[in-house]
Amino acid sequence: MSWLFTKPLMKEITTRWMDNDVYGHVNNVTYYSYFDSIANNYLIEHAGFDIQTSPIIGYIVSSACNYYSSIAFPDKIFGAFRVNRIGKSSVEYGVAIFNALMAL
What we know:
Helices cover about 20% and strands about 25% of the residues. By secondary structure, the chain is of the alpha+beta class. It has one domain (about 1-104): Roll (Thiol Ester Dehydrase, Chain A). It holds the Pfam family 4HBT.
């Protein structure tokens, strides 16, 4: 898993018409939905996490989001996921959203 500290996992995300707000770009709160999907996708597909039977429950105790440019439906976007730090009882993830041009 050490490669995740330096090389993020990239996953395509499909924007939806309903993601746009009245200003014509993806609503800020929708980014957190993308973050949640990226992190859970990694845990399920690469870490063997079973959301139906696992006794482990994850809590988000801290989060922040910096916006550098807007995206809008029907943009092609990618989510990047990496592990920043593994502690004794916690894991810190790094998640980012890129449009198709930025992801290249």
